Amino acid sequence: MGIVVIGAVFVDIKGYPTAQYIPAGRNAGRVTQVHGGVSRNVVEDIANVELRPTFISIVDQTGISDDVIHKLDRHKVNTQYIRRTEDGLGTWLAIFDNEGDVVASISKRPVLDVIGDILDEQGDEIFSDCDSIVVEIDMDPKILNKVFYFAEKYHKNVYAIVSNMSIAVERRDLIKKTACFVCNQQEAGIFFSEDYEGKTPAEMDDILQKKVALAQINQMIITMGGEGAVYANNKGESGIIPATKVNVIDTTGCGDSFFAGVVIGLTYGKTIAQACEIGTRLAASVIATKENVCPRFLPEEFELDV
């Protein structure tokens, strides 16, 4: 099954100004619509490194969902565990400024209950032969408990990604069971109930070392945008990975691609520092384009032994 990814599918509707962006004003520009969602982005990023992951998710009955599945199939994602429901597709509406950063957004989350049914009916066949598991840690606890049940049953590593930290912060007990937890600097502040705005990478490195030990988290990575990322684990290892300098076109999906690179690296034998470097390279390739996902790579480019 390769890497199994579990989560939601969204449609991203993005607006870009053609002139100087005016907050609270009427801005002329262009509007695009692309397939999105944290997990959907991650699974396509993994597939774009020719690793053939499996996606467990739901979509609705519309033609947009047909397009989502067909695109994933083309990218060699195993889509046999995607089911259709009436409210299975989420929507994310975002406005970007002239620097390519999101200045406003609204999202409508899909109802993911059917994922629990998929796990009940086909969990053993899905997880017994997979390489690792990726899950949105802010999903319903009933679904998460089933994921961790199978992970423990078949001795598989779980990697947690966040789409809503305000919800994910309630899952601290499950985050302790993950092989690695990844979030951005603002989300880390919410998770640890502190304000990290303006902290330098060196300061965040020191903070994370202490927090990982106190919270009994196996491994954690905090992304810091243009300043790179910091990592720490419960073995006392920590470090700073600088960002790759690129011309910013659109930052949507760069965090997802960074996470995908980390999961790829850790799943296939890399150290946490090496995994962060893979994530940084994938993220840079997304920032420099208008796509939500990375372009095609080969595993050999990252010296992966798959």
Please sum up the structure shown:
Keywords: Kinase, Transferase. With about 300 residues, the protein is of the alpha/beta class.
Terminal CA distance reads: 13 Å
Alpha carbon gyration radius:
18 Å
Count of β-strands:
13
* CATH fold descriptor of the domain at 1-7 and 36-87 and 109-177 and 243-300: UDP-N-acetylmuramoyl-L-alanine:D-glutamate ligase
The helix tally amounts to 10
Q: What gross morphology would you assign? A: globular
Please bin the fraction of helical residues.
25-40%
Q: Give the mean pLDDT.
A: 92
| Biggest sheet features | 9 strands, mixed
Query: What strand line-up does the widest sheet have?
Result: 5-4-1-8-9-10-11-12-13
SSE topology string = EEEHEHEEEHEHEHHEHHEEEHH
Stretches where pLDDT falls below 50 for ≥5 residues? none
Strand percentage: 25-35%
Looking at the overall shape, the CATH architecture of the domain at 1-7 and 36-87 and 109-177 and 243-300 is: 3-Layer(aba) Sandwich
The CATH class label of the domain at 1-7 and 36-87 and 109-177 and 243-300 is: Alpha Beta
Protein name: Carbohydrate kinase
InterPro entries: PfkB_dom, Ribokinase-like
Organism: Intestinibaculum porci
Domain Carbohydrate kinase PfkB: 3-289
